[in-house]
Amino acid sequence: MIRYDADQAAFYREKLVKRVEADVRDCYQCGNCSAGCPAAFTFDYTPNQVMRMLQVGLVDKVLDSSAIQLCIQCLTCTARCPRNIDIAGIFEDLKTVATAQERDVPEHVKTFNRTFLSAVAKFGRLPEFYDMATFYVGTLNPKMALGNVGLMVPVLARRKMPLIPRRAKGADEVGRIYKKTMEKAKQREKSEARKLQQIRAAAAEAAAAADAARVAASVAPATAGHGSAAVSGSEVAG
Amino acid sequence: MTLAYYPGCAQQHSSEELGHSTCKVLDALGVDYKEVPDWTCCGSTPAHMMDHLLAQALAARNLRQAALVGDELMSPCPSCYQREKNAAVEINESDEFRAEVNEILDKPYGGKVTCYSLPEYLINFVGEEKVASLVKTDLSQLKVVPYYGCLLGRPSDMVGEESAEQPMMMDLLLQAAGADVKWWNYKTECCGASVGMPKEEIQRKLSGKVLEQALAAGADAVVVCCPLCHVNLDLKQAQINKALGTDYKMPILYLSQVLGLAFGMSFDEVMLQKNIVDPRPLVKKAIADATAIKAEEERKAAAKAAKAAAKAAEPGEAAKAAAKAAADAAAGEGAPAKADKAAEAAATATDSADEEVAP
């Protein structure tokens, strides 16, 4: 059953408006993004489903989905959205959130990103062979590695990939950039989580207060109840 | 103004042929360029999928280094180009964000560099006329489809194309280089990109579609700019064949390689020997076919010229002249020689007229 989580929906919606300049409320579910998406056949939720889930506040489910991880960032959805929503931008932002929250994301995307960036942080420029080797070790999937060993034959025959990585000048700065930004992202997510918690606590408090008021109203004389109903009715009409 | 040339990591090794042929083409076109001093990785796809600030800071470091050379940066790799441009647009526009990025960098970036892809730079700063003027080798028999992939078409306003669905820059450059450019609908379909590493099935399906559509369009080769598209279509073509049960043997060329070939460079000069599906037999045949067609055309043109010459000396007139000469010969002395000459002229005129009719 889908439960509308207004607080979480609003929290992430505002975040996305600020960071991606895209408002999920603009989506009217035409499905153009899913029709054009080249990778949707492997997703657990199609892009338009993800947009709907964000509208109703199922953000946790989206953050744990394979959809945002397997998104290639080809930008086809963004280019074809009739409402001009940067859907790929939303996917990208949610992927960074999932990473910073250190969620256990499906598939080997996290391993791929991590091994790539650690290699770059270490050497400044991408040492391709080193990156591939650390990636396949990181996946703990020997079948996958063996399936790709054959690729190295023509590559090595044409001397296109040195096996031993070299450190580029400027690698130190790249290492510092990696460290500083990842720490900053983690801190940001922690403070965001706190903010969301506060909003939820406040909302729970308000709901409890409203409940109490409702109970009080139901015990109050019937005439007073009619009166307040009339007032709220006119408010709605106005 | 000197162009800051940003090669990118892949162009050092696995896509050496792209970096090498790009430099050769820039040299041939007389572009004044210099490599970005101490450049580092742009961060590529993993960086912007991990963290936005990380991605922009990695790119900004290179923009800062590029500013030491000039205000214009060009990268032959569309992925590097997109990362650098994405960062440049955001950082150049916002003082606030620039300050945030500069906090991460060792030395600050001033925010003045503009980024170009190879086709974008050539179209805007060199021009198709200049490209066409340098063509020495006839590639009219090389049937190709330009494959833009994701990064040279989208977002269209950022990459300088009028339409995200129909980018044209590679088409225009290949046409200027004299290649036979086929029209197809898969210009901007994704090849699977880096997701080919963690999730191979996506890449195999998508790249297979691209090859299938290129064949259907009547192309003998696909022309790309992106080293990752190249890996997916060229290096992994055998894997695609195995997974999909196909038998593709489609050479994948870089735009810079085709331009270099058109400018009269040898196969080695544009490093055709580094491509996995060997494009040399195809290119050799295309050039030979073009030479044969040209020779045939020249023969026809020569014949046509001869006909035109014959027309100038109409057979009727020649016959008249011969008759006149014969009459002269009958009338006076010393005429036989003249008569022979006239008869010969008449015969030649008739021969050439016959020859013209024959083919």
CATH superfamily of the domain at 6-100 in chain A: Alpha-helical ferredoxin
Structural class of chain B: alpha/beta
On the 0 to 100 scale, the average pLDDT of chain A is 88
- C-alpha Rg of chain A (nearest Å): 25 Å
CATH C-level of the domain at 6-100 in chain A: Mainly Alpha
**CATH topological fold name of the domain at 6-100 in chain A:** Fumarate Reductase Iron-sulfur Protein, Chain B, domain 2
Please describe the biggest sheet of chain B, giving its number of strands, its sense, and whether it closes into a barrel.
4 strands, parallel
Could you tell me the number of beta strands of chain B? 8
Helical fraction of chain B: 55-70%
H/I helix tally of chain A: 12
Shape, principal axes of CA atoms of chain B? elongated
Query: Which oligomerization state do the chains in this entry correspond to?
Result: heterodimer
Give the low-confidence spans of chain B.
352-359
Strand content of chain B: 5-15%
Question: Helices and strands of chain B, in N-to-C order?
Answer: EHEHHEHHEHHEHHEHEHHEHHHH
Gyration radius from CA atoms of chain B, angstroms: 29 Å
By DSSP, the count of extended strands of chain A is 0
Q: What is the percentage of strand-forming residues of chain A?
A: under 5%
Distance between the termini of chain B: 57 Å
- Estimate nothing, just give the exact number of structural domains of chain B: 3
Given as residue ranges, the uncertain stretches of chain A (5+ residues, pLDDT < 50) are 227-238
